[in-house]
Amino acid sequence: MNRWRSTRDFRGAAEMGERAEAVFVRTAEAGGWQVVQAPEEANRDEHWDWRVARGRFAYRVDVKAMKKICATDANAQDTWHWVELHGKRTDDPGWLYGGKADLIAFETRNSFVLVQRQRLVELVEQLTDFGAAAASCDGAQYKVYTRPGQVDQLTLVETEKLRCICWGEWLKL
Description:
Oligomer: single chain
Strand order of the largest sheet: 1-2-3-5-6-10
Number of strands: 10
Distance between the termini: 18 Å
Low-confidence stretches: none
Number of helices: 5
Strand content: 25-35%
Helix content: 25-40%
Radius of gyration: 15 Å
Mean pLDDT: 94
Shape: globular
CATH topology: Trna Endonuclease, Chain: A, domain 1
CATH class: Alpha Beta
């Protein structure tokens, strides 16, 4: 499903994303949504993976798999989610601020928590201390973290905070 992969993906993030997307598609279709995959350039440049439609409603969705807090952690977790404030390329404002997705679907062990991207912007701006740089991945809760040798900027947002602004929550199939 995922048609392109970062050259720095040494720990299987692309496979985790592909698996989450496959489960998302099955879940959406079982809920009566028509699902169409984004063109490759929209996935890469506009930061959305799928268009879901039902009746008169249609949304572009960016699916976010459960992730590890630190790349060296043994397993992915669903208590916190990484939010991209600036992308991996210097000219990429990242999926939060530069994305065209209407909804972000955050994977948890049992569901997808769907959040309107614009509401997520408001939440991140309310909770994040943009003047505080996280020294390491495990200290990035509501602080700005940049991976060594990268230009991206990320922060961690608690799943329960996402549920407070969620558009919907779909139980996984």
